[in-house]
Amino acid sequence: MLLIPSLSWGESIIYHCNFLKSYTATFDYPQNIIAIIDFNEGKLEKYLEDGNNLTNAYYCENCFSMSNRVNIWTKKYDPWSLSSIDQENARVFEIYAEDLVGHLWKPTKSGYDYQCQRL
């Protein structure tokens, strides 16, 4: 049996996400988010909010499978910390694999939903 590797092996996945709806969040939010993830390396290659490149401020937390939730966290702030500095400054963007709905949130605050597509 001849095994041929997938043609997409090593390629990154681009998620393009558009604002869908909001709850009662009280922080600024973008209309569009683009995230490029290299699942082989488990890293965030690019992160843009409304065209602003924020890649250096974020990283992909445990991003090794497209079939799991994608978690993009701020680099300097832990969203699960009880520190007031972390709670004020941490932001998380999650993309759920099953329906490609994204959710941007901050600790102790409601968030915003996005509809994403893989490109």
Task: Write structural notes for this entry.
This protein is mainly beta and about 120 residues long. Helix content is about 5%, strand content about 40%. A hairpin with a 2-residue loop joins strand 3 (about 45-50) and strand 4 (about 50-55). The longest helix is centred in the last third of the chain and has 6 residues, at about 85-90.
Sequence of strands across the biggest β-sheet: 4-3-2-1-9-8-7-6-5
Low-pLDDT segments, ≥5 res:
1-9
Residue fraction in strands: 35-45%
The N- to C-terminal Cα distance equals 32 Å
The total of helices stands at: 1
The whole-angstrom Rg is 15 Å
Sequence of secondary-structure elements: EEEEEEHEEE
Largest sheet: 9 strands, antiparallel
Mean pLDDT: 89
Count of beta strands: 9
